[in-house]
UniProtKB/TrEMBL annotation:
Biased composition (Basic and acidic residues): 98-134
UniProt organism field: Okeanomitos corallinicola TIOX110
Region annotation Disordered: where it falls in the sequence: 1-30, 82-138
Biased composition annotated in UniProt, kind: Polar residues: 1-18
Superkingdom in the source lineage: Bacteria
Highest classification ranks of the organism: Bacteria, Bacillati, Cyanobacteriota, Cyanophyceae, Nostocales
Name of the featured protein: Uncharacterized protein
């Protein structure tokens, strides 16, 4: 009898209406915070490498963030690196044409403002850059590379460090200084 009762009772029709779940579309190129943080850290390290100083890199980044408050840190870091490497101008600033650029004298030539009747400066007092002997430079570059086991990256870093410490010297002087320091440190 129970079997009959079960068959006589009306059965519910399966519901055809499914509840709709509102899902937000997932962006195709979504990145996690850690990935963004890692990229920012790598860009910051590159900026430090380009500037040669942590403080300078941080100050430049702060200025860029103030200048462009709606841009991301990644964008600001990329812009700074591009500007410092000279690859491109910032996208938001127009480039100047040659006629708009100020004409400057080389740093070694003193700026003199003469009025009519004043004598011109003595040409012997003006320090003109001396042409460098490229043959001697090549010879010193070879010697430095031999001392460093052919590691050009280290050689370039040592020379650029001397350029920061002693600006205004010739390439020949920098090469001599690096070789002298290496010999002194190694006791040669």
């Amino acid at each position: 009898m129970k079997a009959l009762e079960k068959s006589n009772t009306p059965q519910k029709a399966p519901s055809t209406i499914k509840p709709q779940i509102h899902r937000q579309p997932i962006p195709q190129f979504s990145r996690t915070e850690k990935e963004i943080e890692l990229e920012n850290q790598q860009l910051h390290n590159e900026l430090v490498h380009v500037t040669g100083n942590y403080k300078v890199a941080d100050e430049l980044l702060k200025k860029k963030r103030k200048q462009y408050p709606r841009k991301t840190e990644t964008w600001c870091l990329k812009q700074l690196i591009n500007e410092l490497k000279g690859e491109s101008q910032p996208q938001t600033q127009p480039t100047k044409t040659q006629s708009e650029r100020p004409k400057t004298q080389p740093e070694s030539i003193p700026k003199t403002e003469t009025k009519r009747g004043d004598p011109l400066p003595n040409l012997k007092d003006i320090k003109y850059p001396k042409p460098e002997n490229k043959h001697k430079n090549k010879q010193l570059q070879r010697e430095l590379l031999i001392m460093l086991g052919g590691n050009r990256e280290v050689a370039n870093r040592l020379v650029s460090r001397q350029k920061q410490l002693n600006p205004g010297k010739t390439e020949f002087w920098y090469l001599e200084k690096v070789i002298f320091d290496l010999k002194r440190d190694r006791g040669i």
